């Protein structure tokens, strides 16, 4: 094995090809994620800051994508490429490009360890990181394998141009396909469940398994857990534990069913929006700044 051949993976040409493909796949991945999220509940936050966010993305994307592609190439694709080549040229079995794809698991596992150290999932991060290096590694193999030319003779502008063109074409095709699928009903946008009193009645607690927040009784009465409340008369903050009544209502603006609670004291009235599915219903409320909302979600025992 000659380590000089392995070090070639870090040549400018290889890094350029990996960075261009890595940048090109990001918009495609974003479109795929958007399509897959069409049947997910946005919890009423989809429109917050949307126009401003789109303007920022449109202005920054041409500058940001090459940087992200270069970073991805240096921390994921090229290290896996170099390791795969080292193994391929030692064992001398199977095509080299297959080993470079398998090599993506090593830096992917490194990112999995980093996320696991902070409480994240190891296996999921490892597989996603390794998968993100597959297309760039194949792109490097493609540019290297062109008959009579190879990667060294491919102008950088051509590599970036073709990668960008492929990205735009795939994004347009995915958007068109998702539009057709939505119109024909193959993909259905999320619709909140229409629940009856019997389905809503019960104990509701935080989704992380925390304390019970609401006890909705079938007779229309409700028990609320203690919560901080500022007395308008004295200005003191006290824990308000109260009871009241509840009904299923409709938020006209959001066109969603809600649980409207009228309390006997303290806050007076609060509203929880119904979400989730019929089998796994949820109640949620959007809190905080409209530009950075926090969603509090309750699940039923």
Give the tags.
elongated; 9 helices; two-stranded antiparallel ribbon; alpha+beta
Would you spell out the secondary-structure blueprint of this structure?
Layout: H1 3-7, H2 12-36, H3 50-91, H4 96-102, H5 105-117, H6 122-132, H7 134-144, H8 156-184, H9 197-200, E1 202-206, E2 212-216, E3 221-224, E4 227-230, E5 237-240, E6 243-251, E7 256-263, E8 269-276, E9 281-287, E10 294-300
Antiparallel strand pairs: 1-2, 1-10, 2-3, 3-6, 4-5, 6-7, 7-8, 8-9, 9-10
Describe the structure.
With 301 residues, the chain is α+β, with helices and mostly antiparallel strands. It has nine helices and ten strands. The protein has helices at 3-7, 12-36, 50-91, 96-102, 105-117, 122-132, 134-144, 156-184, 197-200; strands at 202-206, 212-216, 221-224, 227-230, 237-240, 243-251, 256-263, 269-276, 281-287, 294-300. The longest helix is centred in the N-terminal third of the chain and has 42 residues, at 50-91. The termini are far apart. The model has no long low-confidence stretch (mean pLDDT 83).
The helix/strand series, from N terminus to C terminus, equals HHHHHHHHHEEEEEEEEEE
- Beta-strand level of the residues, as a percent range? 15-25%
Strand order of the largest sheet: 1-2-3-6-7-8-9-10
Which structural class fits the helix and strand makeup? alpha+beta
Give a brief description:
The protein has nine helices and ten strands. With 301 residues, it is an alpha+beta fold.
